Amino acid sequence: MTNLNINLKNAVAINSKTVVASMSSQDIAELVQARHDNVKTSIERLIASEVIVQPAMKDEQTFDALGRSRTTQVYVFEGEQGKRDSTIVVAQLSPQFTAKLVDRWIELESQAKQHFQLPTTFSQALLLAAQLEEQKEQLALQVAQQQQVIEHQQPTVDAYELLAGKKGSMCFQDAYKFLGGMKQKDMKEWMVAKGWIYIDRFNRVSASNTYLVNGYLKVKATTHAPQIRITYKGLAAMARQMKIKINAEDLEG
Known about the structure:
Elements: E1 22-24, H1 25-32, H2 36-48, E2 56-63, E3 69-78, H3 79-93, H4 98-113, H5 122-164, E4 169-170, H6 172-175, H7 184-193, E5 197-199, E6 205-207, H8 209-213, E7 217-220, E8 227-231, H9 232-241
Antiparallel strand pairs: 1-3, 2-3, 4-8, 5-6, 7-8
Helix pairs in contact: 1-2, 3-4, 3-5, 5-9
């Protein structure tokens, strides 16, 4: 298995404080043999669609192919929530690596347990044994639950990715038809509420610079006035956030 740079937070005393195993987005990139920026993009898409909770970020020292050091911002998954969310991230990136991720979390937890203060009394030993048995049962249950989540989500995730990968853009009059029969008026109201677009008192529409930069929207020059258009990437993000399922078969071709 790939040697990963795993961060373990310090902790002492078995009674209430435990060592927390953590895994970064850079670790995940190395595990699934993917570019770190692509991994971060997948994480951000899942955050935007509210499939996972946004993990903490930190600066981490990494090295390029020439051995040069640089500082990179990484997402850090930790604890029970981290195990859940990182499993979903890996399932989207590369389903065949999901088992490796589970094995790695088991290894991390084993390393974390070695940092426990050894029990000095019989009652402490009994408490530690009970804690370890409970963690084992929780991990087994979580793996089973997440496998069900992954199997349920994968067709929809594939459709979102297929839509996001299409080139081009469309006007509002065409875009709303992809959103489960939503009316154009409702779509525009949603975009205003989420800060994608702004409408002034003269009913003029302008696009948020944030959503222009991230490629969700684009502005097309016309003979009358600039036209705001939604890219397929933006449409996929909207469908995710609205929890609208997309049929991948309808997007092929």
